[in-house]
Amino acid sequence: MHPTHLYERMSPMSSPLLKRIATAARLLLFVALIPLAQAAEQAPKMTADLHKAKGVSCADCHGKAKKKTFVSADRCLGCHGPVADLVKKTAAVKPENPHDSPHWGPQMECTVCHRQHEKTVNWCNHCHVYGFKVP
Ligand code: HEC
Ligand code: HEC
Ligand code: HEC
Ligand code: HEC
């Protein structure tokens, strides 16, 4: 049974104060459920899932931070670098090397393209038409 229904059944709902408390409780419950809904949305396999399958832990990218946010290129390059090697790896990619553009050279933040918990982005295509498949 949905927990708010349970709550309604148990609440006498007689006074306006009780009603207000009930509304507040429902709101809190809703907010508490948002992370669950977000986790469900992540169901399709994302690059972070691929990493997990290869034994890369949350902490390998996020460190010990309680609040997990942005991950810097330095962290990625700890495993995928040095950057010169990465540039060499994709030197033959057509029509251009995504890791060495004339605009930013190899100095781009990796997650501009390689999002980890959502669909990856072909950033160059904001302006060009390149058929990159970003892993
Ligand atoms: C602790 C080491 C580690 C860290 C940190 C790490 N990775 Fe990885 N990454 C791996 C391993 C291991 C694989 C799987 C390699 C394979 O299968 O060849 C992988 C795979 C990938 C792939 C897929 C490559 C392919 O051939 O499909 C991409 C893209 C990638 N990582 C980007 C990143 C980015 C961007 C970051 C930073 C946000 C990052 N990685 C952080 C270890 C790491
Ligand atoms: C502009 C978008 C973009 C950015 C920024 C970017 N990448 Fe990539 N990356 C790509 C594309 C596209 C490919 C696939 C190239 C191909 O077709 O083989 C790729 C491939 C890779 C691979 C697999 C290489 C291989 O062939 O084994 C790794 C690992 C990787 N990127 C890591 C990184 C890291 C680390 C950074 C940051 C320093 C980074 N990328 C920044 C677009 C990007
Ligand atoms: C390969 C590196 C990598 C791994 C492994 C990884 N993350 Fe992330 N995480 C990121 C990046 C990069 C972002 C920034 C948003 C994005 O790119 O999707 C992020 C963002 C987040 C956020 C902020 C919310 C959001 O989506 O913006 C949370 C929470 C999070 N990660 C949790 C986790 C947990 C829990 C794990 C382990 C199951 C994990 N991450 C494993 C790289 C990683
Ligand atoms: C904000 C728009 C924008 C983005 C994003 C962008 N470019 Fe460009 N790029 C341009 C413009 C404008 C030119 C100049 C075009 C000209 O002179 O004809 C250009 C030129 C180039 C050239 C020179 C050859 C050519 O086609 O004229 C290369 C190579 C290139 N870009 C690669 C990249 C790569 C790789 C990325 C992604 C990492 C990227 N660009 C992202 C706007 C952009």
Structural account:
This protein has 2 domains: 39 residues; 80 residues, no CATH class. It is built from 6 helices and no strands. The longest helix is centred in the N-terminal third of the chain and has 26 residues. The N terminus is likely disordered. The structure holds heme C (4 copies). One heme C binds next to α5 and α6.
Per DSSP, the total helix count is 6
Q: Helix and strand string, N-terminal first?
A: HHHHHH
Bound molecules: heme C
Average pLDDT level: 82
The percent range for strand residues is: under 5%
Our Rg estimate from Cα atoms comes to 23 Å
Terminus-to-terminus distance: 41 Å
SSE inventory with pairings:
Layout: H1 3-10, H2 16-41, H3 47-53, H4 58-62, H5 73-80, H6 83-89
Looking at this protein, list some descriptive labels:
elongated, 135 residues, 2 domains, 45% helix, binds heme C, disordered N terminus, mainly alpha, 6 helices
